[in-house]
Design brief:
heterodimer, A: mainly beta, OB fold (Dihydrolipoamide Acetyltransferase, E2P), 4-stranded antiparallel beta sheet, globular, B: alpha+beta, Cyclophilin, 9-stranded antiparallel beta sheet, 7-stranded mixed barrel, 4 helices, 18 strands, elongated
Chain lengths: 78, 321
């Protein structure tokens, strides 16, 4: 099974630091452990989601502004 | 003492609350899910109102400096002792030097972590609960942070005690929250009042200990009426009044907010009604985006629900006596 990066929190997932900035990461990008791949908004705070594994992003399985659950996959690593 | 290696997202010391100061603007604070908080304490041999840790959406990582018995109730977040999984709603032993951590949240919103002996922070205005906005009580008036050393009292709990599933409570899906219409109900049109109960609302990600905000239902429509002097022009405004715990305000008529344990005690928004006291525990276990249906009840039904909840807590005390 492909490795995944999951959301640590329930909330709303964002792929960009702010609406008019580019995505943190895109498909095909390499990630190192600790790289920020997105934000999860909950309780009026935006929490960085950091990669806990290294690899290349095969796909984003959660869309920008999607409602996510804790433990839900956000990214599949190739 | 426990050392905080990682605080989680929002982990704070809470007990049954700080009562008697709401009229001075100091909210009661305390655990959002008071049934789960009491059960956790009873499982580890504490008085039911001892101080515990309330962990929201994400568990902390805690290193124990002395042997203790721990129980985790409320949200489904599997506790782990040095990586070994433990059951929720069941007491287990943690030895000096071991680390308590948690798996991802699988259901609910807030876990109650009771430690035998209780969290022994100073009592402020009659309670150990944290009121973060007012920097009052708890551990230095704030949620826990990495590096904190949290004092724990002397306890004598027993591992291996569990609470039967029939004595636990959690919101369903959709969550059904019972509401007693309030004194401003006549401000809302009949059509709009009916829609409030018909619509499925969703918990907004901003929902916290102060208030639970909801989105997704149709906006409130107000009846034509002369604005009271001093209330301002927005139809959702009143002349400032008292806000009860559980009251539902709808600023601008768009997004209902249920005031919870760290809420302000007064202000200038009209209130549709009040969530019955028996259902406030359930709100504390609702995640962002939880579909929610509001259900209208009468005062008699609200009092019956309160009696039922009191009886359930009585059965929990008996089961864990």
């Amino acid at each position: 099974m492909a490795e995944q990066i999951v959301s640590p929190l329930p909330g709303t997932f964002y792929r960009k630091p702010s609406p008019d900035e580019p995505n943190f990461k895109n498909e095909g990008d390499t990630v190192a452990v600790g790289d920020v791949i997105g934000l999860v908004e909950v309780m009026k705070t935006f929490n960085e989601v950091k990669a806990d594994k290294a690899g290349t992003i095969a796909s984003f399985v959660a869309d920008n502004e999607e409602a996510v659950m804790a433990g839900q996959p956000l990214v599949e690593l190739g | 003492m426990i050392k905080v290696l990682n605080p989680g997202l929002a982990t704070s010391v809470q007990d049954m609350g700080r009562h008697g100061y709401y009229h001075l603007g100091i909210p009661q604070s305390g655990g959002m899910d008071q049934l789960a908080l009491q059960a956790a304490n009873l499982l580890v041999g504490n008085a039911s109102d001892a101080a515990v840790l309330e962990a929201t959406f994400m568990g902390p990582e805690l290193e124990f400096t002395a042997d203790a018995v721990v129980a985790v109730t409320g949200a489904a977040m599997t506790p782990k002792v040095d990586g070994a999984e433990q059951a929720n709603w069941e007491s287990f032993a943690v030895k000096a030097g071991q680390v308590l951590s948690f798996d991802y949240l699988k259901g609910g919103a807030r876990a109650y972590i009771a430690i035998s002996g209780g969290i022994d922070v100073p009592v402020v205005l009659g309670s150990r609960s944290t009121y973060t906005l007012g920097a009052l009580g708890g551990f230095q008036g704030r949620p826990l942070a990495a590096g904190d050393e949290v004092p724990v009292g002397q306890g004598k709990g027993t591992a291996g005690r569990s609470l039967d599933a029939s004595l636990r409570r959690a919101p369903g899906s959709p969550a059904e929250i019972r509401v007693l219409p309030g004194i401003y109900w006549h401000w809302v049109t009949d059509k709009s009042g009916a829609q409030f109960y018909e619509d499925t609302w969703k918990v907004a990600p901003e929902a916290d200990r102060i208030g639970y905000r909801f989105r997704g239902g149709r906006p409130i429509e107000f009846t034509e009426r002369e604005r009271p002097f001093g209330a301002g022009s927005d139809p959702s405004n009143i002349v400032d009044g008292c806000y009860p715990y559980g009251s539902i305000q709808v600023p601008g008529g768009t997004e209902p907010i249920i005031l919870h344990r760290d809420a302000v005690s007064g202000g200038g928004y009209f209130m549709l009604g009040t969530v019955i006291s028996a259902d406030m525990d359930l709100i504390g276990q609702m995640q962002p985006h939880t579909p929610t249906q509001f259900v209208k009840v009468t005062m008699d039904e609200a009092l019956q629900a309160r009696a039922d909840r009191t009886a359930l807590i009585g059965r929990i005390h008996e089961a864990l006596a």
